[in-house]
Amino acid sequence: MNFEVTILGSGAAVPTLRRNPTSQYVVCNDRHILIDCGEGTQMQIRNYGIRFQRLSHILISHLHGDHFFGLVGLLSTMHLMGRDKGITVYGPTELESIIKSQLEIGGAKLDFDLQFIATDPKNPQLIFEDNLIEIHSFPLKHRIPTTGFLIREKTKEFNLNSEAIKESGLKIEHFHLLKKGQDILTEDGQLYSCKDFTFPPKPSYSYAFCSDTKYDISIVPFVKDVSVLYHEATFTNKDSERAKATFHSTAAQAADIAKRANVGKLYLGHLSARYESTAFHLSEAAELFDKTEVVEDGMKFLVSA
Amino acid sequence: MNFEVTILGSGAAVPTLRRNPTSQYVVCNDRHILIDCGEGTQMQIRNYGIRFQRLSHILISHLHGDHFFGLVGLLSTMHLMGRDKGITVYGPTELESIIKSQLEIGGAKLDFDLQFIATDPKNPQLIFEDNLIEIHSFPLKHRIPTTGFLIREKTKEFNLNSEAIKESGLKIEHFHLLKKGQDILTEDGQLYSCKDFTFPPKPSYSYAFCSDTKYDISIVPFVKDVSVLYHEATFTNKDSERAKATFHSTAAQAADIAKRANVGKLYLGHLSARYESTAFHLSEAAELFDKTEVVEDGMKFLVSA
């Protein structure tokens, strides 16, 4: 199944010509998820040819403007474009009244159902699940209440070994049990071991999003072993004092988290407008964790790679 | 003196790849004024190479998102870029608490002085003046309280006729009175008529901004004889019913206002995303008022032309 991330905004608080404020579009098993929605996100969605009416979940990490100032405009555009399918927004408690009051002041009433689910900035939480995916939030350490998000494929089904099944006497009604990894005991007392009639499930992939946060090893358990970690890297080593003062991370600190968490790959973003080049971010991170890239607006990458 | 408008956003509620939501940058006698500030305005300011720290006045017409969702982000960026010079924001009463609450929730405290002046949606009002310019607001008719704005150069000084003065016996201390158009009566009873010693002042130009509004001839007196009128033209004739229902105008209605008000030139904007071409806007307006243009993002025009 597809599991892909498109970077809509890779910049920090001050947007530049090259980097919009934070937003990412994640497609996971045909679930269409937006993470953060900085100013201009709806234009970026259009720029990159994404069909925004497909979005079903919007996750907002925290209430700094560069992470949510595009949200009400996006919802409003969805409404004006004729949306009738509901949408769920997850974010800090106060976000609900911000959305409501801005729509109200503008005299707008959405023609679709907007469900709001408050995230918990203190504890990890399963905020959504269906038959294929799970979305979790987990606490980050920033100047205001902030959460990261983890999108995880559920354990996939075992694949039937049709060759083996053909000669076994197993029937169609047994197949869904085998797919779930169960052994079969038939009425006549025959035991069929799942492993003899299936191939192992394909691997399940996972994507964790950490922005914004100070360097904090307490987040390691939440992102342990994920396939891909996105971690903010607002600063480089020479500005590490500034990182500390503003509750942000350096590229090296992000790499340290990636290494401790044994992630498959690390993507760095939320780069401060002060840097012309990404060279130091990359080299400083790679010293600790070499499977690192810096994101750019418009970049796409597979989580299931 | 310079009097120039740059269009930062020419679209309506739904932004497109070509048209950002409404915003205009007006330079009038070295006063730097932003009118409306739709989502993405700070990026457009950057796109078009405008030095946004020069802005001293921000005028917000009404609280539909496509006219102000970029404001708090812009103020925040000004702060992060080290602004210390104050700024004045003019707009509907509720805007003040929106700005304050969004900054507060984000934990931001601006390092510059932000003065807020509420506009009156029911009566015309002089909202700013100095020695060179005046800014007025005036009521428009839209679904929510809305004002237009008029930026007007004050009557300029008479220009001294140095040839005539040289042989007259007039002294330096008389010059500032002549510049103001006053006749001079000297202590020895001699009368000097201003018109004999000056050339007439250069013309004073004026720019009126009307967005959003239904067709309403009661606004004609407010924009009477302006050099340049910007008037919204969300729709064309074929969608005139929709214009009526949404309290917007057609291009022809904007032209009718321009004609009644005897303006120098008409610019049309706030075009609905439904139109691929501007041809009908232009032709339908030109039937009534031929000095008409349709604005595009990035367009610049002189008011003092």
**Average pLDDT level of chain A:** 95
Q: Total domains of chain A, how many? A: 2
In the CATH hierarchy, the third-tier topology of the largest domain in chain A is known as: Metallo-beta-lactamase, Chain A
Q: Structural class, from secondary structure content of chain A?
A: alpha/beta
Number of helices of chain A: 11
Walk across the major sheet of chain A and give the strand order. 6-5-4-3-2-1-18
CATH class of the largest domain in chain A: Alpha Beta
Strand-residue fraction of chain A? Answer: 25-35%
CATH superfamily of the largest domain in chain A: Ribonuclease Z/Hydroxyacylglutathione hydrolase-like
- Count of DSSP strands of chain A: 18
Globally, the shape of chain A reads: globular
Low-confidence stretches of chain A: none
Q: How do the SSEs of chain A run, as a string of H and E? A: EEEHEHHEHEEEEEHHEEHEEHEHHEHEE
Span between termini of chain A = 11 Å
Helix content of chain A: 25-40%
| Oligomeric composition of the shown chains | homodimer
Instruction: Kindly report the greatest chain-chain contact and the residue count on each side.
Output: A-B, 35 and 35 residues
Report the radius of gyration of chain A as a whole number of Å: 22 Å
| Biggest sheet descriptor of chain A | 7 strands, mixed
Instruction: Just name the CATH architecture of the largest domain in chain A.
Output: 4-Layer Sandwich
